[in-house]
Amino acid sequence: MFIDIADIFIKSGDGGDGAISFRREKYVSHGGPDGGDGGRGGDIIFVVDPSMTTLLNFKYKRKHEAGRGENGGKNKCYGKDAEDLIIPVPLGTVIKDKESGKIISDLSTVDDKYIVLKGGKGGKGNTKFATPTRQAPDFAEPGMPGEERHVTLELKLLADVGLLGFPNVGKSTLLSKVSKAQPKIANYHFTTLEPNLGVVAMPGINPFVIADIPGIIEGASEGVGLGIQFLRHIERTRLLLHIVDVSGIEGRNPVEDFIKINEELKKYKLDLTDRPQIVVMNKLDLLYDRSYLDEFKKEIEGLGYSEIYAISAATGEGVAEVMKACAEKLQTIPVTETIYDVEDFFIPEIKQFTYDVEIDEDGVFVVSGSFVDRLLYAVDIHNPSHLRYFHKVLGNKGVLDRLKEMGIEDGDFIRLNDFEFEYYA
């Protein structure tokens, strides 16, 4: 089964919590704080695995989470960092943000790897909160949460030559003749329901990879038929081998078919008409009058295409000549990366612990947001020393200034989640 697109959920590891600990030794009656920091959460890293050819594994496992960092310990022992989660993917995989559809990374070379999500930082132990005036802090910092995201993995085949043409023109037959690939072949439309790759290794030519792209029909660039699912695979190819059925046995006009396919390439988002094309007139064995070849060739040359060959993929006539022409053409075409527009790339938001302040119907100033959750997790509101730290953080983070701007006065109430207290300047 060929799977070339998959949606998965990924989450990096949370950071470990800082420790609350004090030095305890036989002859040390008042040891200072010695709580260590928490460990870092694991990153989510995608790496290319050349042995993989499909995204089938992601059909059965759609949730991937990295480990949590270890909590800090006593004696200033730091928690152990969690191991990164390495996710192998096939060469040619594009990672996209599912919600926006924009590109996070394009893994198109063998050694590519990309950190998609960073693990959360470990929280500080109470050692880090000791000051000359606060020598025994009995609070610590929680670990930072990891990141999470729904992503789409999209596989684009990496081939030197892409076989192009309407369904049932003989692409699969040609692939089976020139490589060891064994595509399904039958005399009906859309026999090929998934791309097939083969390596052409014939005497006297440099080997190259050829891909049989499932039949593209008129309207493919707009989602008609199977074409829109597979046009992405042509993006990677350096050379297009455009197969045309010149036998006319299905009552189609070969020239019109050729023009329609190129129109679909032009409409596709990357305008694939910039790829060099070799035109192949196939099914000579079924052509009663070969004089039509000259007529077809003249019309195609009039459209600006000069490299035109006649073959019979079924009998092998002319096939070696075409493969030799492809190999020679590839020597003149540099290997280039797919060019994307800046707007195509996903720019993640820098998530900070933010807060918002509003006044409810009872006149209470409500402070909410991720900053509030983290702060309340770190302190014990019933502990006086914790409360002093709590108020200091509110001042350092600008919360108190924001409240003053909103007109808070002595005696007004402030609420953070379920914790409510009276304000006095």
From TrEMBL:
Residues 1-158 form the Obg domain. GO terms for molecular function: GTP binding; GTPase activity; magnesium ion binding. Mg(2+) binds at residues 172, 192. Its cofactor is Mg(2+). One of its GO terms (biological process) is ribosome biogenesis. PROSITE patterns: G_OBG, GTP1_OBG, OBG, OCT. It is found in: Cytoplasm. Gene3D superfamilies: GTP-binding protein OBG, C-terminal domain, GTP1/OBG domain, P-loop containing nucleotide triphosphate hydrolases. It comes from the Bacteria. One of its GO terms (cellular component) is cytoplasm. Its main location: cytoplasm. Residues 345-425 form the OCT domain. Keywords: Cytoplasm, GTP-binding, Hydrolase, Magnesium, Metal-binding, Nucleotide-binding. It holds the Pfam family DUF1967. GTP binds at residues 165-172, 190-194, 212-215, 282-285, 312-314. Residues 159-331 form the OBG-type G domain. Its EC number is 3.6.5.-. NCBIfam families: Obg_CgtA, Obg_CgtA_exten, PRK12296.1, PRK12297.1, PRK12299.1. An essential GTPase which binds GTP, GDP and possibly (p)ppGpp with moderate affinity, with high nucleotide exchange rates and a fairly low GTP hydrolysis rate. Plays a role in control of the cell cycle, stress response, ribosome biogenesis and in those bacteria that undergo differentiation, in morphogenesis control. HAMAP family: GTPase_Obg (MF_01454). Monomer. PANTHER family: DEVELOPMENTALLY REGULATED GTP-BINDING PROTEIN-RELATED (PTHR11702), MITOCHONDRIAL RIBOSOME-ASSOCIATED GTPASE 2 (PTHR11702:SF31). Belongs to the TRAFAC class OBG-HflX-like GTPase superfamily. OBG GTPase family. This is GTPase Obg. The lineage of its organism: Bacteria, Bacillati, Bacillota, Clostridia, Eubacteriales.
